[in-house]
Amino acid sequence: xxxxxxxxxxxxxxxxxxxxxxxxxxxxxxxxxxxxxxxxxxxxxxxxxxxxxxxxxxxxxxxxxxxxxxxxxxxxxxxxxxxxxxxxxxxxxxxxxxxxxxxxxxxxxxxxxxxxxxxxxxxxxxxxxxxxxxxxxxxxxxxxxxxxxxxxxxxxxxxxxxxxxxxxxxxxxxxxxxxxxxxxxxxxxxxxxxxxxxxxxxxxxxxxxxxxxxxxxxxxxxxxxxxxxxxxxxxxxxxxxxxxxxxxxxxxxxxxxxxxxxxxxxxxxxxxxxxxxxxxxxxxxxxxxxxxxxxxxxxxxxxxxxxxxxxxxxxxxxxxxxxxxxxxxxxxxxxxxxxxxxxxx
Length: 345
Known about the structure:
The protein has a single domain (about 5-345), classed as ABC transporter involved in vitamin B12 uptake, BtuC. The protein is built from 15 helices and 2 strands.
C-alpha cells in the first residue's frame, strides 16, 4: 500500500472538504472525531488485546474539565450553572479563546492522569472482565456527573458562545478536530515503531510470557491507556464547545452510541493495524449518516447488520482481510516453502 498517496488523499480531503461540501462541514467534523476515537481505542483494544468499553469516560470527563476551566477563569462556576441563571455571562474574544485553549490542554492532562490511576484497578482484570469493568467505570462516571451541582448535575451546563459569525462556527471546530485527529495518528504511528509497539504486541500475544521476560506489562498498559485518554479528553473538550451544551446522559457519556461506535469502527476496519481504525471510522460514519438521512427508523437495523456481518465473516476486519489476501501489497513476506510443506503434510 502506497502510504504517501493515502496521506496526500486524506490531506486534500481534510483541507478542501469544507470548501467542496460547505453544507456538510459539521458532519465532516464529526468524521474526524470518529477517526480519532477509533485510532485511540485501538492502542489498548487492538495492539494490546485489552478491549475497553470505557474510553468514553475520558471523553465526558474532558468535556466537563474544559467547561469548568473555561467558565471558572472569569466567573463563579456555581453561579454560572445555577438553574435559573444567577448571572448573565459575557465572554470577550480573548477570554473565550484563552479559556478554550487552556481547557483543551488541561482536559487532556487530567484524563491522562485519571487513566493512570484507574489503570491500577482495571488492569487487574482480563478478557471480558476487563471490558465489563471499564464499562462500569463509564456508567459510574455518568451517574456521578449527574449528581454534582456545581457542573449543572442532570440539568447540564451551557458552554460559552463562540465569538465568530454563525457561518464560521462549524469550520472552526472542524479545524480543531482535524488537527487533533492528525496529531493523534502520527503520535500513534511513532509510538508503535518504538519498543512500546513490540511490548504492546507481546502483551496481546501472551501477557504471562511477556511478564516472565521482564516486560513491565502494567506500566505499558497504563501508558497506552493514558495516551488514548489524553486525546479523548481533548476531543471531549472540543465537542462540548461544538455542541454548546453539556449534559451527562447523551452528550458527555454517550455509552450506547459513541462508546460502542469506537469499538465497532476499529473492528470493522481491522484492529491492531495503523490504517484499519481510520478506514473503519470513515466507512462506518458514511453509512451512519446515509442511513440516518435516507433510512430513518431503520438506521439501527442497518448498523446492527454491519456489525453481525463483520463479526461473523470478517473478524480480522477489512485491513486484516486485505493483508491476508494481498500480503505483498502491504510489504508482508510470505514463506511459500513453509506453506507447501504444510499442504504436503
